Amino acid sequence: MHARRRWTVALIAAAVLTLGCGTLPDPDAAPDDSAPQPGAVPTTARASDGTTSVEEFRDDARGAVTEAENYWSAVFKSSGVAFAPVSAVRTYRDSGDLACGREAIPADNAVYCPAGDFIAYDADWAVAAFRKIGDAFVFYLLGHEYAHAVQARLGVEHRYAIDHELQADCMAGAYLGDSVRAGRLDLADGDLDEFRRGLLAVGDPEGQPWFAPESHGTVAQRTDAFFNGYEKSLAACGLS
Length: 240
Known about the structure:
Layout (H helix, E strand, L loop, with lengths): L1 E2 L7 E3 L4 E3 L33 H25 L9 E5 L6 E2 L2 E2 L5 E4 L4 E5 H11 L1 H20 L6 H21 L3 E2 L4 H12 L16 H14 L8
Parallel strand pairs: 4-8
Antiparallel strand pairs: 1-9, 2-3, 3-7, 5-6, 7-8
Helix pairs in contact: 1-3, 2-3, 3-4, 3-5, 4-6, 5-6
């Protein structure tokens, strides 16, 4: 996935955490501790483009956050509502490196933390997913977490975690589909398949009760939610 200005999870709801989960192979090399910050301007050309290098991952992650911030800022502005970007995006490597309130954030996850208003992700896990699935997954992953930040800003609450997660999948799809249609993101060959592979990787295991607090939806449910948003925009996401 590429942007015109060059930018191209699985989630467990807890009292203070909205988490991503998944098990993927370790990357060949790990990124450093720097994280993409909201408002960062993506580069216009990169020697790393088309590779699976850590440098390309960082550029894609930075661009995904920037485009999500720009998208939601425009949506809020069109409704006459002030928008505040997330306070930070942070990386970590091991369980307990970061905490949300008093709860340690586990490894192999991505999370939006309402208590600190930040997004965090396990850098090694995210790079491994990027290498295994593709750069479109980075946009989905961070788009999903940014959707949770938007839910918090709108005061959206659901009785069951699965409803919260499927709505975030729809919102991530809307952000990506709208950005492609507006020409802010260029959809490369294979990107839609990468989204599907990413959703396949983060679906609940077979037999997972839908009402369990850690449920996010089956592969079919998550795929339907994402592509409903991608094709029909936010009207499909039940935000009104």
